[in-house]
Every structure is written in structure tokens, then in C-alpha cells.
Amino acid sequence: LLWNGCPGDGIKPQSTSQQPAQKKSSPKTTSLTYADRQAWRAILQWPDSCETAFDNREGTWSGMTFWPIGPKQFLVEVQCFLAAYQPTNMYACYNEGTRPALAKFLAFTVYTSDGKKIVQEQVMELAGLSDFDPEQKELSVTTKSRGLGDCGSFAKYGIQNGSATLKEFRAKFHCDGRWQEPKTYERLFPR
Description:
By secondary structure, the chain is mainly β. The protein is built from 2 helices and 13 strands.
């Protein structure tokens, strides 16, 4: 969706096709309230499962962040769930420079382990703490597998040409009681 930068629900992508936005003029993108979240939901159309899991703190916050990635283009972080130490988010690219405006939720490549083998998957929701570098158009997500922070993952995605491209994925799947900087976990991608 975001032509120079960025472009469901659960583990498998439902559809990552571009969706025409429902309104002609967009609500604000800063200092958002819960009412603003509702207006954006009508435009971006994230799934019910994300919205019902969201804790709006009695209507006092939106759980949304807009990062500009081009003229009238944004990477939008939509919080679905807040656990004890990290949120679960969906990410959409939104281009209000087109008529109609276009929105697209992104799919992300991740690696998981069942204790025996490491598997690559595509997901629509990412758990973890995020950081976005607007100059590089890179989204980084650090995930804790448990509160102690002795295991988890670190991922970096390039947001470009309507998709999220995995640039780096590191993981420490074995929780051993010893904290380690996530950026120093074993590199699974690229090899």
C-alpha cells in the first residue's frame, strides 16, 4: 500500500490485498483517543478478534501509533492485546494520497520452535516491543518468551513496496535463566 514505504487476524494471513478506505477524509493521526480508534477501525477494518482483545483502559487510550513513511503515507501500529510485559500488534500501511485512500495489513515472516525443530511462519500479528526507523523504513520488534527476558526473539523488517520484508531474525528459544541482549541472540536469518 505505501508505495515508497509500507503497504488479519491470527497466525495465517487472511488477505493482504489493498482495501479502499471507507471515508474520504481521514481522522487525525496524533494525540489519539479511543473515539479516534473507532473512526480508524471503520477505515482500516482490523478483525473483531483484535478489537475484542484490546484493553482501552476505560476509553482513555487508542492503542495506535502512526509513523510517516512518505507523503500522506503511514505505517500504522494497531494494538490488539496487552500482556504483562509486551503488546500484540497488527501493522497496516495506509496511503491517504490516493482516491480512494488505500489500506493494507502486512504479513510478517517469523521463526518458531516446538522444542525439536525451528519453523518459518507467516503471521499477521506480532507480539513484542516495537521501534520504527523512518529514515531506513525499518520496523524492529523485540519479543520476550517470558517475563524474565532470558529467551525470545529480535526481528527487523524493511517496509517497502507494500510489504514487510524480513531483514534479520534472531532467537533464543531455550529459556535458561540468563538474560542476554536480544540483538545478540543466534541469527536465524539471514544465514
